[in-house]
Amino acid sequence: MNTPDIVQRGGRVLPVVVNDRESEARTPANRLYRIPDAARDPFTPCPPAPFMRAGEHDLTRLAPGRPQASGEAIAITGRILDEDLRPVRRTLVEVWGANAHGRYSHVIDAGRNDAPLDPNFYGFGRLVTDDDGRYQLRTIKPGAYIARTDIGWWRPPHVHFSVVGSGVRLVTQMYFPDEPLNEKDFIFLIVPAADRDRVIGQPAATHAGDRAFRFDIVIRGRFQTPPDLD
Amino acid sequence: MASEDLKARFTPEATIGPFYPGAFLTHLPQDLWTVAPLVAHHPQGQPIVLVARFFDSLKRPVPSLVVELWQANAHGRYRHPQDQSAAPLDPQFDGFARVRTSDEGVLRFYTIKPGAHPVRRESAEVRAPHLRLTIFASGIDRLITQLFFDDESSNQSDPVLQSIPDPRVRGRLIARRRRTSGGGEGVGEYEIDVVLRGEDETPFFDDWDG
Ligand SMILES: [Fe+3]
Q: Is the pTM of this model over 0.90?
């Protein structure tokens, strides 16, 4: 992608996700504009430190002490790193996903999806990375769900991740290994083949009795991590 | 090449999809005029309202689009560890908000007009007042752009705005001040259309290093 042509004329042309009507209608057709070097200060927001309640990293319960949602509880652990592999510390990570049946608690998933809601699962949570950029969360392994009935496009199980803070911004999706639907998913397939393993959680040692996956996130971009203040 | 090896490690970005949790908005500021119900809050500067309408390639409004706004305070200072500006911070202004478009694809953002600021400390080059937008929606990955104000003469020399060669394209980043203010006494209301794709497409920027 780093061709002289792009360096000279500007930034990327964003790819359209095939068979996704929203992508087709919303992805800019024009090449992105390169930010002039003189103004390459952070473009990404630095939100105020969030107030976190206990248990927000545990999506398997609506609140500590409430019953566990149905399905398989899993742990996802990893590190958030910048391009120089330095930890992204104390940054907000937001996570969301479908329930074990492939249904989101989101209102707009009602009527679209016959799969049942789970009264013990909202499917979203938050956490803040520690000083080593580490995070851990607990959720229910999401079910697959149909994205377009007319063409039979199923989304494989996946967990949505958003990282924001200190000038860092990234939204991605974590897939699971050995899911046959991965190779048929238009959103997964838009990831260049060489990078696909970077969006698949890797099996890890059991975590407090839960099957565990490791998912490290490396943030792209200059000026992304605040200077070491220690 | 070593830089290629480095690049290969980055995590690819993805769309937020259609089911982005509404709770992620209520956890963060959506309005920089107020911090909480009934709390007297006085950010420094001129209160403004930005009314932005978002369209797709078929000129349909884009509902449930998530926009993160980030801006300098009235003195041109960002609350960011890397902002080395000599301008003061405003204790009552963080400059970050996360908002979502209505069913009509409209976003109303209550804030104060950001100050101009030098490109870097002690630089003679000046950034015109602008809002930094990060845009998310089902079907697209993160998009970034900056919006300017039509009553600011510093637009003529802003290095980001002027880096767009075609003046018509440049104009798509400039919000127009409405004649009559809808937000009350002394409140400037600015409007702009953001077109994600198609005719009159808004220019977006690339913060990946090429
Ligand atoms: Fe999803």
A: yes
